[in-house]
Amino acid sequence: MGALFAVIGLLLAFYGLVARSQTTLSGLNIDLWWGSIMFIFGALLLALARAARLRYTHSEDTKK
Amino acid sequence: MATLPLVHLQWIDYALMGVYFAFVLGIGWMLRRSARTSTDFFLSGRSLPAWVTGLAFLSANLGAQEVIGMGASGAKYGIATSHFYWIGAIPAMVFVGLFMMPFYYGSRARSVPEYLRLRFDEKTRTFNAASFAVMTIFSSGISMYAMGKLFNLLLGWSFNFSVLISAIIVLCYVLFGGLRSAIYNEVLQFFLIVFGFMPLVYLGMRAVGGWHGLQARLDVAARAHGFAAGAYTHAWTTMGSASHNPIGVEWFGLVMGLGFVLSFGYWCTDFLVVQRAMAADSMNAARRTPLVAAVPKMLFPFLVILPGMIALVLTSTHAGGVASFAHGMGEGLIPAKLTAAGTPLTDSNGRMILDYDLATPMMLIHLFPAGMLGLGLTALLASFMSGMAGNVTAFNTVWTYDIYQSHIRPGASDAHYLWMGRVATVGGILLSIAAAYVAASFNNIMDLLQLVFAFVNAPLFATFALGMFWKRTTGHGAFVGLLSGTAAAAIHHGLSLPAGAEIGVKGGYLAVIWTYPSELAQTFWTAIIAWVTCCLVTAVVSLLTEPKPESELNGLVYALTPKPTDNAATWLQRPAVLACIILGLTLGLNLVFF
Asked: By CB count within 10 A, which of B8, B205, B408, B508 is most buried?
């Protein structure tokens, strides 16, 4: 799920950069801002998932 | 009526939707190996943590009809719409988590109708299973229909294309992964809605000048609609009498009808949501599931109701690829409903009727540039599809366990029932498609479904409440009570009519004895009467018939079940503590928007 948001975030941010004139409303480039935020969220989820997986395999190792 | 698409999408919008579809199918594919037993397929192996089941619990309920419907109600009723959440959901969610989950989870019933068989008898179970199965199919079909209609209007997609594509995608991921797939997608839907709608609220509030700006504009609108100035921005002050508030109901009908009967009837007995809690990995997680769901539920009014309220008072200042109202009739961003001839529809008072359902979509189109619009539409798509998937997973479980296993082919192997579950998924989708086309031909079908829900859910809650908390309730009592409650609902509906409505689906088909100020008032009172009738009849018949021996009722009735002890690790994990916090916050919200 983290991957989904990371990808969406990237796409949005990219579009925000490329089509600046269309996506900027009253001084705020929505696509760029929100895309970046979503990307960070996605990256966070991916990091949490990896940490959980590492913790799981670590606890599996220590059980042996 | 012209079917010009209201907006043209850019490549980015299509790309975002494509990414979503790819993920959804990919996840279904990856989960296909995890569905090995029927418990895996129907109950996700009872293995999910509370935060997952909690978000799924919330999202299963949050179909796109709710997102769009709440926007519509926000435009129609103002902040009073939050009653549907703060009165009409939170208390019931707290109740089901604290008091009813021990029975659902503890009895190891695999579905809500199965609990009824354990507690009562086969005929009560079958009545519930049959009515529920029909309701899920129609709900799923109506999701498809609503989606097809909306995307046809907004984007010009062909209705058939939308229905087919969504059916195929949902079919694929449910067929592969069963409930686990559906739950995963529901969690995804939750986050997409949050990310898709937060910017909408932000931009909308900026455009109207914050809460005070919104209040000022809504005061003007309220007066224009014949109410006192604060009617749209206060939830309780106008509840003294039905004619003072936009909902058209007084506080008693609201609290008892919506807050008690309808909301408890839905949250406590609807297998679609309860199934998500049954998939939890422990009793504590199952009890916390509705409580975890209640936290975002409290805050959702700001996400879905505010856009509707803003739509009423925001005027379109830029044309940018958006068609203006046909015939220029509408209010704020909301166009008027049109007759087949293309003229504005008016009610019996001569006021034009607004097409409130378009409030939120119009907000999306007006405020979001390309890219964000794709995100918003993807969030809507996700809601429609998870609404379908949720109904299909509930249907295939009820069909396989409560109808097929009980009546058609009992005693077969687990693998056989797993196979049947997959067949039922395909069958369910096909029937939903049929229902979608039925809905397209009879445009009153949605009203009809709402009606059936109220007729069936209200007495059902009485049956459950009595069954769980009064050990003297008997199977005959429950069955006769259910039937009479449903009949009482139909009779009350037939004898009453909301002001300004035509006789027919809206009521009054027997005679018009009572007139209610609004449809919602009529619905709430129908629910109250159905519930009371079911309670009385169930009690009377139960006292006249033989109950099950107490040994068979262990774990199924409050008095005969060991109380679950709240000895979870941290205080935040104790259901009772969570419940108090949630109720306190909800009370606070009610006071702020009093």
From this structure: B508
- The DSSP code sequence of A18-62 is HTHHHHEETTEEHHHHHHHHHHHHHHHHHHHHHHHHHHHHHHHHH
CA geometry: angle B149, B154, B156, nearest 5 deg: 80
Confidence of residue A27 (pLDDT cuts 50, 70, 90): low
Q: Is residue B199 part of a domain?
A: yes
pLDDT bin (cut points 50, 70, 90) of residue B253 is: low
Question: Tokens standing for B105?
Answer: 């989870």
Please report residues of A whose CB lies closer than 8 A to that of B372.
Answer: 12, 23, 30-31, 34
Q: Which pTM value belongs to this model?
A: 0.82
A56: buried, middle or exposed (CB in 10 Å: 19+, 13-18, 0-12)? exposed
How far B366 CA lies from chain A's nearest CA (Å)?
Answer: 11
Q: Is residue B338 part of a domain?
A: no
**Which residues of chain B lie closer than 8 angstroms to A8, CB-CB?**
16, 19-20, 375
The domain limits of chain A are 2-63
Domain count of chain B? 2
The reply to whether B131 and B228 lie within a common domain is yes
Q: Are B60 and B186 in contact (CB under 8 A)?
A: yes
Identify the band that residue B566 occupies on the pLDDT scale cut at 50, 70 and 90: low
Q: Are B386 and B496 found together in one domain?
A: no
Q: Is the pLDDT of residue B342 over 70?
A: no
Statement to judge: residues B514 and B434 lie in one domain: no
Nearest CA in chain B to A19: B370
State whether residue B20 sits within 8 Å of chain A by CB. yes
Contacts of B202 in chain A (CB under 8 A): none
Same domain, B469 and B546: yes
Q: Kindly report the CATH number assigned to the domain that includes residue B419.
A: 1.20.1730.10
Least CA distance to A1: which residue of chain B? B188
Chain B residues inside the 8 Å CB shell of A3: 23
Dihedral sign computed on CA atoms, order B476, B479, B483, B486: positive
Are B129 and B271 members of one domain?
A: yes
How many other CB atoms are found less than 10 A from the CB of residue B453? 20
B245 pLDDT more than 70: no
Q: Does B369 touch chain A (CB under 8 A)?
A: yes
Q: Are residue B535 and residue B582 in the same domain, yes or no?
A: no
Which spans in B156-270 are helix H?
159-208, 210-224, 251-252, 263-269
Q: Does residue B201 carry a pLDDT above 80?
A: yes
**Closest-CA distance of chain A to residue B142, Å:** 28
- A25 to chain B: which residues are within 8 Å by CB? 203, 367, 369
In a domain, B298, yes or no: yes
Nearest CB to A8: which of B203, B368, B375?
B375
Q: Are residues B385 and B508 in the same domain?
A: no
Same domain, yes or no, for B413 and B548?
no
Per CB-CB distance under 8 Å, the chain A contacts of B20 are 4, 8
Distances, alpha carbon A38 to alpha carbons A10, A12, B190, B480, B516, in Å: 8, 9, 14, 54, 47
Residue A64: pLDDT over 60: no
Residue B524 lies in a domain: yes
Q: What is the pLDDT of residue A12?
A: 64
- Determine the distance in angstroms separating the CA of B12 from the nearest CA of chain A, rounded to an integer: 7
Enclosing domain of residue B403: 48-308+378-438+564-592
Question: Contact B40/B180 with Cβ under 8 angstroms?
Answer: yes
Please give, rounded to a whole number of angstroms, the shortest distance from the CA of A53 to a CA of chain B. 15
Which residue of B lies nearest to A2 if distances are taken between CA atoms?
B188
Q: Tokens standing for B103?
A: 């029975």
